[in-house]
Amino acid sequence: MLTGKVVTILLQLNQIHKVFNEGTPDEKTALHRIDLHLKPGDFMTVIGSNGAGKSTLMNMISGKLIPDIGEVLVDGTDVTLVKEHKRSRLIGRVFQDPMAGTAPSMTIEENLAIAYSRTKARGLRKGVSKKRRDFFQEKLEMLHLGLENRLSAKVGLLSGGERQALSLLMATFTEPKILLLDEHTAALDPARAELITSLTKEIVETYKLTTLMVTHNMQQALDLGNRLIMMDKGQIIFETNEDQKKDLTVEKLLEEFQKIRGEKMSSDKAVLI
Amino acid sequence: MPTAIFGSIEAGAIYALMALGVYLSFRILDFPDLTVDGSFVTGASVAAVMIVGGYNPFLATMTALLAGFAAGCLTGLLHTKGKINALLSGILMMIALYSINLRIMGKSNVPLLSEETVITKITVFWQGLGIDQAIQSLLGALGMGFIPKTWGILVLMLILAFAVKVLIDLFLKTDIGLAIRATGDNETMIRSFSADTDLLKIAGLGISNALVAFSGALVAQYNGFSDVGMGIGMIIIGLASVIIGEAIFGAKTIVRATLAVIGGAILYRIIVTLALRVEFLETGDMKLITAVIVIGALILPKLIQQQKEKQRKSRRLAEAKKTNAYGKSGDHLAAIKSDS
């Protein structure tokens, strides 16, 4: 750790390169020497078509995959080879599948207790103490879903939207250094997706979380966050800063995408600028 | 007859420890662990050999428990670090343990009949309390003809089973316990909350097999021998106890489920005892009876559920008919009715 030194870059990806099925006919370069820097408090949205490398990028950060070349630094510490479960002390995650982020046969409070222990060494302390229960109740109120009154209900009984809201809370209330959202509203109906989007905004602002969000929804990518990148074929092909992002619309974004793609067809060099 | 039932409750209480172990692996970790067939005998062998060697039977039983823990951890290692399929890693350990158990005992059977065991010690302790006489005279006064040798084994083994149950209940509510439960429930999730699922599985299987070996050690002392073949089909007996217990006593919460497992283990022993009284059945049919019991316990609850569902449906239809007679609002219900 770089103690005593002000870290201005919280998440740093240097030259991340990943090839799947190397040396076989199925060889595919999933990420092509990606550089990415997030400052504390940055909220970056990531868009791109299927197979653009968005999920692979997320998996590099979470530690599910290890890059062939390049390094991942969190808060100035090299975590490139740190195992997924150890890295998750620093990183909160919400998955696309609402079923993926919670344990269905356990109660709401037990799930929260598991999330609560994310940053700690687990021991033989009681998982749901009176003190923790009060704390959980207070946090659940943030969701405005009335879950604070259903602490001992099994999570498997909740609806997809409720489960995803709970997943979001569980990933965030211990204030991770980095929050990764992997198309976390994609599997929900429009009304529920809207709810989770607004909760995301509220929670990220409350805790000032440094966030990376993958989405298929361009409007959502524009509504949320202060930075935006567009990925295609394992590369970042378009990036906006805070000021540019404010003036961006879906039309402009599509136009941009078309333009870059068109140029890409004629010249690979143009993309790499 | 009452003596046989009494004996099966005694044995059931001891086997309940094994069933609780199977509950941990099978239900909590969602890991079909066949190590049980081997680790049960490992517990019995270690305890028997140590007792014959002159060690304190309590120390021997505790050592047996640790041996079971080690066996379970090895299965966990094979599965998590060796990336071997769950069923296969259990079977491999089971087979390996067969030879190891023979090595421990040096022969295929170690008798304990004339030795001082945990069972004889607690019987002596209990008789010193003088409770037997009190119960006996009470039963005599009530005109019951059945008089067991001692109540000590039954009472103390039941207390032991319940103590272990309470410990498991408490453990599964600690931070580690919650993480172990989540490992069996949703591995992706618990890994994203900084838990090492490999380690949790290894520890969980260790604890599970420690209980199985503990049970094996006590069964050897209860029966008066340890035999290399005494573990065959043990996993099925454990499963039978878990499934029968859950089907009859329910499994809504952990506290309820562990209680159900103890009940299931005792009930299983009673069923087997009764089945063996049927004239044309022999001791050799035991495994077949066990298989039939498990199949029954697996299928019956589903049939009952279906039956209930049917009844509910016909009741709803009858109600729909009634409302339909009174107003137009029942139109859509009438459509449903004609469908069925």
From TrEMBL, chain B:
Bilayer topology term: Multi-pass membrane protein
Entry keyword annotation includes Metal-binding: no
GO cellular component, one term: plasma membrane
CDD domains the UniProt entry points to: TM_PBP1_branched-chain-AA_like (cd06574)
The keyword Membrane is annotated on this UniProt entry: yes
Main location: membrane
TM helices/strands, residue ranges: 6-26, 58-78, 85-104, 151-172, 199-222, 228-250, 257-276, 288-304
Taxonomic superkingdom: Bacteria
Subcellular location: Cell membrane
Keyword annotations of the record: Cell membrane, Membrane, Transmembrane, Transmembrane helix
GO molecular-function term, one example from the UniProt record: transmembrane transporter activity
One Pfam entry name: BPD_transp_2
Name assigned to this protein: Inner-membrane translocator
